[in-house]
Design goal:
The complex is a heterodimer of chains A (122) and B (450).
Chain A lengths: L4 H17 L3 E2 H11 L11 H10 L3 E6 L7 E6 L1 H27 L14
Antiparallel strand pairs in A: 1-3, 2-3
Helix pairs in contact in A: 1-4
Chain B lengths: L3 H13 L6 H20 L4 H12 L2 H11 L23 H14 L2 H4 L8 H26 L4 H20 L7 H22 L7 H36 L7 H26 L1 H5 L1 H27 L7 H24 L8 H31 L3 H28 L5 H29 L4
Helix pairs in contact in B: 1-2, 2-3, 5-7, 5-11, 7-8, 7-9, 7-11, 8-9, 9-17, 10-11, 10-14, 10-17, 13-14, 13-15, 14-15, 14-16, 15-16, 16-17
Classes of the chains: A mainly alpha (122), B mainly alpha (450).
């Protein structure tokens, strides 16, 4: 299954903010975590994560600093701010509204594409 | 490992050349690439295979560049002259229109003289030129930008109305003899006109902070180019005069009278064209200049502040001194604005930021001393147009720099991001235009044109 590009773009901000709410992180770990969380379904090219992170930084939703961890190489770490948490809460409400509306509709529809009754099924 | 390093280096330089991708971004992307390669290597891939997969996962450089450019529109400034997609094919740089309009400005400065207003023989005419110097030249620059940015009819009409109003105000006001409000109007009018030019260069709107920052960059770089052109032109004119003098001394005076003003007027447009067309050249110069002068100003201003603190503010502070301090604050503000505009917002705080704070703080201390002395004296001597203008500008600058210093401290302590300081500067910018307009239009009315 391929997830639509617009949907990936729309979900990227809440996803990144939510992962950062669990604790500060850096680009590579973030994209790895996204892949794990979505079971590999949500795939974006890794580079795209950085313009997004920089946008969040400009909005003051995350702060960032270059650091060298004891093991490993120099990385740029990102941490969510209070404003970022507030934004995430807001986004979460919006997504909840969307998913509950969709769930309501899904329940009335069969999952498989409908087959025309006159043709019947074999 | 041996085959990998050259490949990464090559990839780095390739990504670094993409539009909108700056050095720190490449560092960050490279860190990511290396982690990815390590992980893939751990899963059993050979180095070169891991490299290929990691690069593939990073995404197409074109897409990446577009995303970075969208987020960091400020960086895109130097590529504005290039079309969005095909790099080698250049958009017309506007040289032809700039040259035509430069010629227009060069002729326009002589029109009043041709109509009998001769500044060399008559004081009244000299004042006319003083008041109208900006009006004879800067509308051409505004027009050039209006053409380049393809301004709509409404903004063009609004800007034309402002220019017409300015022309009416400075020429129809019944100025008193030796009027200081007339001199002030002549001094502040170019600032008002510069805001007209800025509006045209921003495509007719003041809404975008990024565009405002572009105006700051444009202004600084235009000033650098103008000074360079002026130096070159001065050398050329001086040499010509020296060469001509032995054979026909009569030629030298008209040469200076006719060529000098025309050159100065035309250079305004040529400098603007250079800024727009040759941005790559100057962009390397501007940060270097700020980097050189910020520490020097910090040291000198801190020294001056210490001297004032030791000697106390017993000196005679008159209007001239306040003017000097206005100028000082303007220069410090210029340094701050310029280094802000040239600075990568995501870079961590450095020595230069600290030095800049020292410069601002020292200037504020000095200014506070003088301001207190001045306010006390205004109480004794009463208000004049000059005192109002000087004090008003001083307060305006003081507020700007004080808040900049505060935000700068917060940034250095890691309490606020650098973008907050940037925002404050661009948000405050229109205040200067409003004040300049008030000095030109309202102040003469308040003081009965004296």
């Amino acid at each position: 299954m391929r997830i639509d590009k617009d949907l990936v773009a729309a979900s990227a901000t809440p996803l990144v903010l939510a992962i950062l709410s669990e604790g500060e992180s850096y680009g590579y770990a973030l994209s790895k975590r996204v892949r794990e969380l979505s079971g590999g379904e949500l795939e974006w090219s890794d580079g795209m994560l950085y313009p997004l992170l920089h946008r969040l930084e400009r909005l003051e939703w995350v702060t960032t600093a270059w650091r060298v961890p004891p093991e490993g190489r120099r990385r740029r770490y990102y941490a969510v701010t209070d404003a970022g948490r507030a934004a995430l809460a807001d986004q979460r409400r919006q997504w909840d509204a969307v998913t509950s509306a969709l769930t309501g509709v899904w329940q009335r529809l069969p999952l498989q594409p409908a087959v025309h009754p006159s043709l019947g099924t074999v | 490992m041996t085959a990998l390093e050259p490949q990464i280096t090559e990839w780095r330089s390739y990504v670094g050349r993409a539009r909108g991708v700056a050095r720190p971004d490449v560092d960050e992307l490279e860190a990511h690439l290396r982690e990815q390669i390590d992980a893939l290597g751990g899963a059993g891939l050979a180095d070169d295979e891991a490299f290929l997969v990691a690069v593939k996962r990073m995404g197409a450089v074109d897409d990446l560049s577009r995303e970075f450019a969208r987020e960091h529109s400020g960086r895109l400034w130097k590529q504005l002259v290039l079309p969005p997609d095909a790099e080698p094919q250049r958009r017309p740089s506007g040289l032809a229109s700039a040259l035509v309009l430069a010629a227009g400005a060069a002729v326009a400065v002589h029109v009043p003289r041709l109509l009998g207003v001769d500044p060399s023989s008559d004081d009244e005419a000299a004042f006319f030129y003083l008041r109208n110097a900006g009006l004879l030249v800067l509308p051409f620059l505004a027009l050039w930008f209006a053409l380049r940015r393809e301004l709509g009819r409404r903004p063009v009409l609004v800007l034309a109305a402002v220019l017409a109003l300015a022309a009416v105000v400075v020429n129809a006001y019944p100025w008193a003899r030796e009027s200081s409000s007339e001199l002030l109007a002549a001094l502040y009018l170019p600032v008002v006109l510069w805001f007209v030019v800025a509006t045209a260069s921003m495509g007719g709107t003041w809404r975008s902070h990024e565009r405002r920052m572009d105006v700051v960059r444009f202004t600084g770089e235009w000033a650098i180019y103008y000074v360079l052109l002026g130096l070159g032109g001065g050398v050329l004119l001086g040499l010509t005069a020296l060469v001509l003098e032995p054979v026909s001394p009569g030629l030298v005076e008209p040469l200076l009278q006719w060529v000098l003003p025309s050159g100065a007027a035309g250079a305004v447009l040529v400098a603007a064209w250079l800024v727009e067309a040759k941005q790559d050249v100057i962009e390397n110069m501007a940060p270097v200049l700020t980097a050189v002068f910020t520490p020097l100003f910090a040291v000198v201003l801190a020294g001056c502040a210490a001297t004032y603190a030791v000697s106390g503010s017993t000196g005679e502070f008159d209007r001239v001194v306040l003017g000097v301090f206005d100028l000082l604050l303007v220069v410090v503000l210029g340094l701050v604005l310029y280094s802000t505009s040239a600075r990568e917002a995501s870079r961590p705080a450095g020595v230069l930021d600290r030095l800049q704070l020292v410069a601002i703080a020292s200037a504020l201390v000095l200014d506070a001393v003088v301001l207190v002395a001045m306010v006390a004296r205004v109480g004794d001597l009463g208000w004049t147009p000059n005192r109002v203008a000087a004090l008003g500008l001083n307060l305006l600058l003081l507020v700007n720099l004080a808040r900049a210093a505060e935000l700068s401290v917060r940034f250095l302590r890691g309490r606020a991001p650098f973008s907050r300081l940037e925002r404050w500067q661009t948000a405050y910018l229109p205040a200067y235009g409003v004040w300049a307009a008030a000095v030109v239009v309202v102040l003469p009315l308040l003081f009965a044109f004296a």
